[in-house]
Write a structure and sequence with these properties.
With about 260 residues, the protein is of the alpha+beta class. It has a single domain (about 10-250), classed as Creatinase/methionine aminopeptidase superfamily (Creatine Amidinohydrolase, Alpha-Beta Complex), CATH 3.90.230.10. Helix content is about 25%, strand content about 25%. It is built from four helices and 17 strands. It has helices at about 10-30, 40-50, 125-140, 150-165, and strands at about 55, 65, 65-70, 75, 80, 95-105, 110-120, 165-170, 175, 185, 205, 210, 220, 225-230, 235, 240-245, 250. Helix 1 (about 10-30) packs antiparallel against helix 2 and helix 3 runs antiparallel to helix 4. Bound molecules: 2-amino-4-trifluoromethylsulfanyl-butyric acid and cobalt (II) ion. Cobalt (II) ion binds near residues 112, 175, 208 and 239.
Length: about 260
């Protein structure tokens, strides 16, 4: 078992910058989610904002087996859980939910965050799915305290999600993040309190509940990337990169104001 990297002052400063960029890009994309917009439109806006903010997409060219991810953003609609490939054929309509997952590389460090945006109006059940998934993220983050264990994050998320009648995806997990997109530890959204590695100061953790309205089973489409809920029901995804400190968890993926000198 490889150990969880601890970031020093410099690493933390660099993570702060990378995560701020990831959050700013995500923040710019949210208001673009409207009826008639294609997921390719969102991809192009994301690609351009990543470049303007002096970063690179950590998704573009990301290798999994023999495949390379072909886009700068992951955009997953409705029953798509994660890793949806943007397409000019995918036109958004009222009632859709759109998960935007933005991972950027900035000065050697990676910031990772995701948010599910509804194309209003959505059904009450879907509204609840988004609210519960978002709250599950907050509840998971609250567990990222020094002396707790990774399983405390997992268990808190699972308990809350299942108490609300939804299910947590098992096939994908949260993760440490830093100089690479996936560092130890794995952070499942299900598990037992008191298990897993102990949380220490200076860890940077991507906590990311993926919650299905129906059953937790997923499958991967023939494009080799898009993960969908096997029962075809909607799925939501929220993610923050969090720094563990003696003063408690600190969310790093918070946007700053886009500097005026950045021309649009
Ligand atoms: N946030 C996703 C993850 O942690 C981003 C994947 S990028 C892709 O797996 F290239 F795999 F699509
Ligand atoms: Co992630």
């Amino acid at each position: 078992m490889s150990s969880i990297p601890i970031k020093d002052r410099n690493g933390i400063a660099k993570m702060r910058e990378a995560c701020a960029v990831a959050a700013m890009v995500l923040d710019q994309l949210k208001p673009l989610v409207r009826p008639g917009v294609t997921t390719q439109d969102l991809e192009e806006a994301g690609r351009d904002w990543i470049a303007r903010l002096g970063a690179r997409s950590a998704c573009y060219g990301y290798q999994h087996g023999s495949r390379r991810y072909p886009a700068h953003t992951c955009i997953s609609v409705n029953d798509e859980v994660v890793h949806g490939i943007p397409s000019f054929r995918r036109v958004l309509r009222e009632g859709d939910i759109v998960s935007l997952d933005i991972v950027v590389w900035h000065e050697g460090y990676i910031g990772d965050n995701a948010f599910t945006v509804p194309v209003l109006p959505v059904s009450p059940a879907v509204e609840k799915l988004l609210r519960v998934t978002r709250e599950a993220l907050d509840i998971g983050i609250k567990q990222a305290q020094i002396g707790h264990r990774i399983g405390d994050i997992s268990a808190a998320i699972q308990t809350f999600v299942e108490a609300n009648g939804f299910s947590v995806v098992r096939d994908m997990v949260g993760h440490g993040v830093g100089v690479s997109m996936h560092e130890p530890p794995e952070i499942p959204n299900f598990g037992k309190r008191g298990t897993g590695d102990k949380i220490k100061p200076g860890m940077t953790l991507a906590i990311e509940p993926m919650v299905n309205l129906g059953a937790y089973k997923t499958k991967t489409l023939s494009d080799g990337w898009t993960v969908v809920a096997a029962d075809g029901l909607p799925s939501a995804h929220y993610e923050h990169t969090v720094l563990t400190t003696d003063r408690g968890p600190e969310i790093l993926t918070v946007p700053r104001t886009v500097p005026a000198q950045v021309s649009v």
